[in-house]
Structures are given as C-alpha cells and as structure tokens.
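Protocol step 4 of 6: structure prediction from sequence.
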Amino acid sequence: MLMLIIHIFLGSTLAGSAAIAALALGYDTLTPILISASFGFVLAIPASWMLAKRLAG
C-alpha cells in the first residue's frame, strides 16, 4: 500500500520531469513527449519500491 502511495507522487514527478526535459531538448511533438513521460512513470516503479522498502524498515 505504501508503494502505491509513493508511486502516485513519484511517478507523476518523474513523468513530468522527463516530459519537460524532452521539451527543453527541442522535441516538441507528441510522440517524444509521451515516450519520455512513459519512461519516467515506469522508472518510478522500482524507485518507489525501494523507497517503500526503506521506509517500512
């Protein structure tokens, strides 16, 4: 349960950061933005699992 709560916040943060990075690099069409946002969201899964594991003890 803790992992899901962390993933909600961490997933949106990493997805948004990746989308902004894609825009800053000049990729301003829909496909690169969606790919980078999806990559950030998927990257948040193991990160939230590790963080929840550390927080739970």
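Step 5 (inspection) to follow. The chain is about 90% helix and 0% strand.
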